[in-house]
Every structure is written in C-alpha cells, then in structure tokens.
C-alpha cells in the first residue's frame, strides 16, 4: 500500500465491521418470549438496527403492539439478554481483519464510533479479536448524544489525536453523521442500509473490505 495520506480512520461497528444482527435478533426474541409475544424474523430486526438498543426495542414493541408502559422494563431486559451474549453469533465481515491489518501497518490511527452502548461494543471487539486494532471506542452511552449528532464521531477523532481522514459506516445514520461532522465518508454497501446507495452522500462506496485499503490510498490529502 503506497500511503498518500496518514491520519485517523473511524469505523461504525454494527453492519460495518461486524454482522451483529444474529445476536441482536436472538436477544430480541428472548425478550419477547418473556412477555408472551411472538418472535420476529431476522430480516425485521435488521430493518430496526441503527439507532441504538432503546430505539430497537421501541420499534420491536410497535411491531408487536406492546404497551408503551412496558418500555423501560423491556429495554432493561433487552440489555440484560444482549449483554449476556453479545458475540455468540456475530462475525466480522469478510476481509475486515486483513483491511484493518493493512491500515494499521500504514500507521493510521483507528477507532470505533457506534450507537451500541460501550460495554457490549467492547465485549464484541474483544470476543472477535478486533480490539487490538483500535485505540479509541466511543459507544452510544459515552456522550449525552448519539449519532447522527456529530459529537460522538468528533470525539473519537479528537481522542485519536490525528487528523481525520475518513469515517466508514454502512447506514443512513452514518452518512448523516459524517455529513454533519464534515468528515469524508466511505459507505460499506454490505451492511444494514435501507436506502439505495446513490441516495446517500459518500466519498466512495465499497462492498468488499479487500478493496478498502486501496480506496483509502486513492484519497487526496484532506
């Protein structure tokens, strides 16, 4: 990799580095079973991912017609189920480890900015042997606000202490976060996005992590 620029690269977690939907799906259905509700499909849960677990739970409750008075209890139970088993079924997307290795060897400072709360985010990174690549992890409870507010992303870059080079994510939330932060955005097309690729603002789009280092290399200095 002939590095033309070196700085900081921050990644989203769910749907970007890791296919975490199967574990979220399993936790949701354990939560629903406790409340005597029917399970939801994996495809439905994928459509609900992107704004953190409280929002996921609210969408699940709406889908199953559960009363809003149970929201606080169901969020608590969802967190308990998910925190107990956050990485049993989750896996890094193909090519992620090699891409991160290449970028790290090229002396990029790497971080994660996710709307997932910090404890399960770190547990997933540890379980999948990805923590070694990242100097900073900002979770959904690290700041008073979450993405698409730009503050968590900007905080990640600030902690990395290097010039922002790129934010990499998979969703509408990520694209909007990058836009608000004024950071270049690499859109991973293989995640949980619901909007057509062409409708989201991005610096480039990729569907294979094997191509990411070359895409980064092709960027001009900020």
From TrEMBL:
The entry lists its GO molecular-function terms as: metal ion binding; phosphoglycolate phosphatase activity
Q: Give the positions the UniProt entry annotates as the active site.
A: 12
**Enzyme Commission designation:** 3.1.3.18
Q: Give the binding site residues for Mg(2+).
A: 12, 14, 170
Reaction(s) the record says it catalyses: 2-phosphoglycolate + H2O = glycolate + phosphate
List the HAMAP family hit by this protein, alphabetically. Answer: GPH_hydrolase_bact
- Keyword vocabulary terms for this entry: Carbohydrate metabolism, Hydrolase, Magnesium, Metal-binding
Q: Which cofactors go with this protein?
A: Mg(2+)
Q: Does the keyword Metal-binding apply?
A: yes
Keyword NADP set for record = no
UniProt-listed Pfam families: HAD_2 (PF13419)
Could you provide one GO biological process annotation from this protein's UniProt record? DNA repair
Q: Which GO terms describe its cellular component?
A: cytosol
Which PANTHER family does the record associate with it? PHOSPHOGLYCOLATE PHOSPHATASE
Extract the InterPro entries matched here.
HAD-like_hydrolase_sf, HAD-like_sf, HAD-SF_hydro_IA, HAD_2, HAD_sf, PGP-like_dom2, PGPase_prok
Pathway(s) it belongs to:
Organic acid metabolism; glycolate biosynthesis; glycolate from 2-phosphoglycolate: step 1/1
Q: Which family does it belong to?
A: Belongs to the HAD-like hydrolase superfamily. CbbY/CbbZ/Gph/YieH family.
Q: Which organism is it from?
A: Roseicyclus elongatus DSM 19469
The free-text function statement in the UniProt record for this protein reads:
Specifically catalyzes the dephosphorylation of 2-phosphoglycolate. Is involved in the dissimilation of the intracellular 2-phosphoglycolate formed during the DNA repair of 3'-phosphoglycolate ends, a major class of DNA lesions induced by oxidative stress.
Q: What is this protein called?
A: Phosphoglycolate phosphatase
